[in-house]
Design goal:
globular, eleven-stranded mixed β-sheet, Rossmann fold, 2 domains, four-stranded mixed β-sheet, alpha/beta, 17 helices
Amino acid sequence: MALRGTVIKNATRYASKWTETIPSESIKQQEKQLKKLLNKAKSTEFGKKYGFSKVLKAENIEKAYRDAVPVYDYNLMFNQFWHKTLSGVADVSWPGKIENFALTSGTTGSASKRIPVSKQMIQTIKKVSVKQILGLSKLNLPADFYEKQILFLGGSTTLDQINDQFEGDLSGIVTGKVPNWIAPFSKPEKEIRALRDWGQKIDEIVKKAPEWDLGIICGVPSWMQILIEKIIDHYGLKSIHQMWPNLRIYVHGGVNFDPYMTKFNELFNSQVVYLDTYLCSEGFFAFQPVDSDGMYLLTKSNVYFEFIPFDKEHFNADGELIKDESLTLADVKKDVDYAVLVSTCAGAWRYLIGDTIKFTNTETYRIKITGRTKHYLSLCGEHLSVDNMTDALTKVAYRNKVEVREFAVIGSQTRSGNFKHQWYLGCDTPPSKVKAFKDELDYELSMLNTDYLIERNFALEEMDLEIVPTRVFYDFMKIKNKYGAQHKFPRVLKGKMATDWCSYLAYTKEVGENKKRAII
């Protein structure tokens, strides 16, 4: 009998009842979060500059806060405040001294960003993670499942020290501080978690895989797929369940999972529950409970949310904010794209994180990530989002039984003065009829987005489509020093990133490494 598992299972079932959020209380919870954050930071440099003490006395605190504090993006926040925090100054935008900084993937620019990660934020992320685990009790899994191990496929726990502060991947910062009761179940071992070289880390996990009895795996889909495929290939397996027969849960995040689902269903020969998460350098914002088909916004986890409609009235064609008309949770509508502002327990205030979301349910505040404010195309008014691109491509790839592991799109102007989208698909087995595939993709985009359909009849020319071996995407990320668990290939390439990508493809073609590319 799994005595320890039985104890943990019963404790989980009991504890989960105390962590459930009642949707009807979400609006009040958000008001409380804002008051708590303002009160905590009122004596900081930021709090004094914007009069947090005065805001707290207002009849409508949410409105007073919005009126008092402007919207901040990373550059503005760093140049005015966070550079002091990084230099070791205390009480800048959050009380005390910040010891850890998360290095972001920097997909929208060439350099990584340094996001403060306070002790309170680390504790919040750990609590939310435990809350999601506690929710597993609703699956009524056998007691011995609770004795199985958990694989965290994340960044290096080895951090760089600058004076008496540390910086590195958020996954490394958090994984290095897992709760003591989870530590015995956590894989890989700390020596492997500390490795900086991503390729070496993957190889070491492959070697250790037969020693583990995993019940849960956690990680970004693209890298988790690579790991599982390497294990299957190395040991000559038909399914990963031949190695880990008790694997039942896959917790993923970072990208839209829909394009990966078909392949993961093939890799697993037993039923696995997929759970989505919304965890980024600025905080843990949402996760998918086991009894839901979507993520729920976390309204009482030391984060206050605001939402700005992501449309041409509020953002220009480059994804830059032109009109600050933020909404509270009480004002949001279903199926509208919003840019997200967060105020957090790490000293971010009305901070534009760059993500866009939509509410799929405004009674339970269920959300879906739809893209990035800078990662969409509107060359001539087509307003094509990453969500549109992903949905259309997923449908076409599924119908044609083609696996597309990565993709990117570049917008350009033609000699005739019209506009065009250039698509690049990471595909190791190209579709048999590439022209037909392209036409289907164009049709699906038109069905999903009426603006795209209109512009296709006027200023937007027929797209170009190029099939590229998947490894070319990953090799490019290596060159950019963005290879590893915390990095994602940007779906829309602009500026220098687009120029570098095109130059790299031209180089690989010239040296004969890309002979099988099909260009339409």
